[in-house]
Design brief:
alpha/beta, single chain, 20 helices, 43% helix, 423 residues, three-stranded antiparallel sheet, five-stranded mixed sheet
Length: 423
């Protein structure tokens, strides 16, 4: 039988009893009481790197006697799929949830309280990382990873175009793209699909704008703010150097796989996308470089969205004690450090700073994360805005095709407001 996840009021009241029921098997950490059991963990495509997954699986089996099965999910349509799965009698035991979406599932009563576990393993985590896991003062998830976009560039193409060093301002970056365009007729300066909306969100953060605002006690769209229009204008300047479709996002096709063909000067990417490119074309490995996305001035990088994911335990899960044992291992300093080294994520505690030095993408991401980073609104209603079809993506395509930002905003604000009004 399915329970209505969206009916938050009805479900939320069940959370305490559900969590207790799910963890009442009496198994104790560190014993062999879990031997032979299997834990199901949903992770998103590209999230769980190979070595991290291998060592976590081995450590988990050694400690508990149980096995873990990672089930890889696609981002497109994940909110609807996750809502259904968490409403079932037999949900996945542990789920990865985008940090901007966690509040919605917590409000709906779909997640177990992990406050005690946070005290045990995450006392030194950066508050900025943990903020998206806390709802109404309770810890309904634990931060797994977070990071921001950087410029991933082809060093070979840049060298052949006569470019030396890396740009420190947006103007210098655009000049570099223009140089590649003029001197490398067989290469595209930048591959930037029209709907990389998390990059737009970063640019919006850089202009000091908010995507929503409180009006008469309700959250409503703020897309018509001139500051958002300014961010979209900057995006338009970037996209002018690209021939990528204006009505597609960075996952259709995977931009890292386009980059892997060796004919693209740069992409605006997450650090883990380098591994995707190398997997598609191992020969490109030594040509990949990274640098911080430069801003208007050299002292402040371009605004960036601090995107990432949390791990949560299903509120109606039957293996909550085993799930917590998994989280203790998956989020240990050793394995968090492996995530930073392997995927280029930003360290979430001071002890992991050394790991970042081993990954060029993490090093390139750090300046913007510290000076120009932010997130989408951390309110439960925001998850509905990101549902497919994402109206902000439609706004981007409309502007790139010539529509005035104010008019494009008016066309979709009623849809955004309707989604924000859902409880």
């Amino acid at each position: 039988m399915k329970r209505g996840l969206i009916a938050a009021t009805a479900v939320a009241g069940m959370l305490v009893s559900v969590a207790a029921c799910g963890s009442s098997d009496g198994n104790k950490a560190g014993t062999d009481g879990f031997k032979g059991q299997k834990l199901t963990v949903w992770v998103m495509s590209g999230s769980n790197p190979e070595q991290w997954s291998k060592q976590v699986s081995e450590q988990f089996k050694k400690k508990t006697g149980a096995t873990v099965e990672f089930k890889v999910q696609q981002w497109n349509g994940i909110q609807q799929k996750l809502s259904t799965a968490l409403s079932e009698d037999t949900p996945p035991d542990v789920v990865e949830i985008g940090n901007t979406q966690t509040a919605a599932y917590a409000k709906a009563g779909a997640l177990a309280d992990l406050g005690d576990l946070k005290k045990e393993i995450g006392a030194d985590w950066n508050d900025a990382f943990n903020k998206a896991s806390v709802v109404d003062g309770k810890q309904y998830a634990l931060p797994w990873y977070a990071g921001n976009r950087v410029v991933m560039y082809n060093k070979k193409i840049w060298a052949e175009a006569g470019l030396k060093g890396t740009p420190r301002t947006r103007t210098e970056l655009f000049k570099a793209f223009d140089t590649i365009k003029k001197k490398k007729s067989d290469a595209e300066p930048l591959y930037l699909p029209g709907q990389n909306w998390y990059f737009l969100d970063g640019l919006t953060i850089g202009t000091g704008a908010d995507l929503v605002k409180k009006q008469d006690g309700k959250w409503v769209s703020n897309l018509g703010d001139p500051k958002v229009a300014k961010a979209m204008d900057i995006y338009k300047q970037y996209q002018a150097f690209s021939t990528a479709p204006k009505n597609k996002d960075e996952a259709t096709p995977q931009q890292a796989e386009v980059f892997a063909k060796g004919r693209t000067g740069a992409v605006i990417a997450m650090g883990y996308e380098a591994a995707t490119a190398v997997k598609a074309n191992p020969k490109i490995k030594n040509d990949i470089g990274f640098f911080t996305i430069p801003g208007e001035t050299a002292d402040k990088p371009e605004g960036v969205f601090l995107g990432g994911s949390n791990f949560a335990v299903a509120g109606m899960g039957k293996n909550q004690e085993l799930a917590k044992e998994f989280l203790k291992i998956a989020l240990s300093k050793e394995n968090d450090g492996q995530m930073v080294k392997e995927s280029g994520w930003t360290p979430k505690s001071p002890d992991l700073a050394g790991a970042a030095k081993e990954n060029p993408a993490a090093a390139a991401a750090a300046p913007a994360a510290q000076k120009s980073g932010g997130t989408t609104p951390l309110i439960p209603q925001w998850a509905a805005v990101e549902n497919v079809p994402n109206p902000i993506k439609n706004y981007m395509t409309a502007v790139l095709n010539g529509k005035a930002p104010a008019d494009a905003a008016k066309d979709i604000e009623s849809e955004i407001n309707a989604r924000l009004a859902k409880q």
